[in-house]
Specification:
heterodimer; A: 64 residues; B: 411 residues; alpha/beta; Rossmann fold; 3 domains; five-stranded mixed β-barrel
Chain lengths: 64, 411
């Protein structure tokens, strides 16, 4: 799946799932670094989307 | 014995004396006029009394009103009753007897009491009204509805009547510019022929009834106008049952006629009839104007309301949008913060576990046992736990704290 195609809400849900699993000790140590890497990617994805949306919103509001 | 012969003059003279003697006074007599005509300023009448049930005459006499009396009595009678003396009328006359040898017997009228005639007319009217009510037609006209757009008017009026002219002018010159279509149906509007004439005209209108919205029965005229023609049963029945609303404007200012009573709408004059039609049209027009104003006002209010809502929402959107963004940011940051804590905790736990294990392991170190004076016997590198595992001549190794001893098993 292309990262751009991941919906914000789906990305957020994945991220929350990883954090919850980490907090509940549900992850193998072997998987930790892989999952952490995935979490960082999701964080970046979400932040990028937010930044982009923020810029678009400000642009639209300024057009009024 | 020869009976004496009279001349006619002599005998009539006797009769005159007898009458003069027997009837010296003036008397008030009730009678119906079976004939009435004026000639040379005098009025000649035929009086009649009919049997109440069979309607056949039971008494008859001539009566005269000489010019001297007639010139005073006539205008008074017409002013009070609203109509002239005419055939069929019930009258109360003050009379005295007169017999003339050459002209015969006649009652000479010295006065007429018009109130008696009025009473009689009123009673007749009352009877007609009663009959119309019994026939169930008295209120029929008022159950009709004047069309909303009442503009095609059939007019019953005398051809060149001033009242008709007034009516047309009034309609034409209305201040709103409404257009009416007036069609005149000429009729006799005075005297005895009113009934038959108006009824025949009503029939003509009925033949093309779809061309009209209402009928106006019009008649100008002063206070002394003879309206008795409008008080007949047949005319009232015809108008009452006519399918178009009838508006009467038969100029008069005394009691309303029976036609007025049964009409859909009655007004006093032809001009007033026109004003009524204009007013009716104006009310229709007003309803349209009002509806138009109401719709436009209502629509404007709705639009203004929606505009307000939109602008309220518009002012909310930037704040809301930015808040959603900052909430989202915050949420991610929280998640991001939780990650290292979770990982840190997890790794620390594992480290502690490893440490505990290593301590546990240390406690199993054999060096600790050797130091306390125990020794371990090995054969071929394995710890010897049972002497039976060894045979004489086997070489064994004994591990002590500070070194190793090699020995051979003897036994």
């Amino acid at each position: 799946m292309n990262e751009e195609d991941v919906k914000y809400e789906e990305a957020l849900a994945q991220l929350e799932s990883i954090v919850r699993k980490m907090e509940n000790d549900e992850l193998d140590i072997d998987q930790m670094s892989v999952q952490l890497k995935r979490a960082q990617e999701l964080i970046k994805l979400c932040k990028d989307k937010l930044t982009k949306t923020d810029e678009e919103i400000k642009k639209i509001l300024a057009e009024k | 014995m020869n009976t004496p012969h009279y001349t006619l003059l002599q005998l009539n003279g006797l009769l005159r004396e007898a009458i003069d003697t027997a009837l010296p006074d003036e008397y008030w007599v009730e009678a119906e006029l079976s004939e009435c005509r004026e000639n040379g300023g005098h009025c000649y009448m035929e009086l009649i009394e009919k049997d109440e049930h069979s309607n056949t005459p039971v008494a008859r006499a001539s009566a005269k009103c000489w010019r001297q009396t007639w010139t005073m009595v006539k205008p008074y009678f017409e002013r009070v009753t609203g109509q002239p003396l005419r055939t069929g009328m019930k009258v109360l006359l003050q009379v005295y007897a007169q017999y003339h040898e050459a002209y015969g017997f006649s009652w000479i009228v010295s006065d007429i009491d018009p109130t008696y005639t009025i009473g009689d007319m009123a009673r007749k009217r009352q009877e007609i009204i009663q009959q119309l009510k019994e026939e169930g037609v008295f209120d029929l006209q008022r159950e009709l509805r004047l069309p909303t757009f009442c503009k095609r008017i059939a007019v019953i009026s005398a051809q060149n009547a001033a009242g008709y002219g007034d009516f047309c002018r009034q309609l034409e010159d209305n201040e709103y510019g409404f257009r009416f279509e007036v069609t005149l149906f000429p009729a006799v509007m005075q005297g005895e022929q009113v009934e038959s004439s108006v009824i025949s005209v009503l029939n003509s209108i009925y033949e093309r009834i779809d061309d009209f919205d209402a009928v106006c029965i019009l008649r100008g005229g002063g206070a002394t106008a003879d309206l008795s023609g409008f008080d007949t049963l047949a005319l009232a029945e015809n108008v009452a049952q006519f399918p178009l609303p009838a508006i009467t404007g038969i100029g008069h200012d005394r009691d309303e006629s029976i036609l007025d009573m049964i009409a859909h709408t009655k007004v006093k004059t032809p001009t007033a009839a026109a004003a009524f039609l204009i007013d009716h049209m104006f009310r229709t027009w007003k309803r349209i104007i009002d509806a138009e104003a109401y719709i436009s006002q209502h629509v404007n209010e709705r639009i203004r309301f929606q505009q307000q809502r939109i602008s309220q929402l518009a002012t909310l959107i930037p704040t809301l949008a930015l808040r959603v963004l900052s909430d989202s940011n915050h949420r991610i940051e929280l998640l991001q913060n939780r990650l290292p804590i979770a990982i840190e905790r997890r790794l620390t736990n594992q480290k502690h576990r490893l440490e505990r294990l290593s301590i546990l392991l240390q406690s199993f170190d054999p060096q600790l046992l050797l130091a306390r004076g125990y020794s371990i016997t090995l054969h071929n590198g394995r710890a010897v736990r049972n002497p039976n595992d060894l045979h004489p001549g086997d070489e064994i190794e004994t591990r002590l704290e500070k070194g190793t001893i090699k020995s051979v098993v003897k036994r």
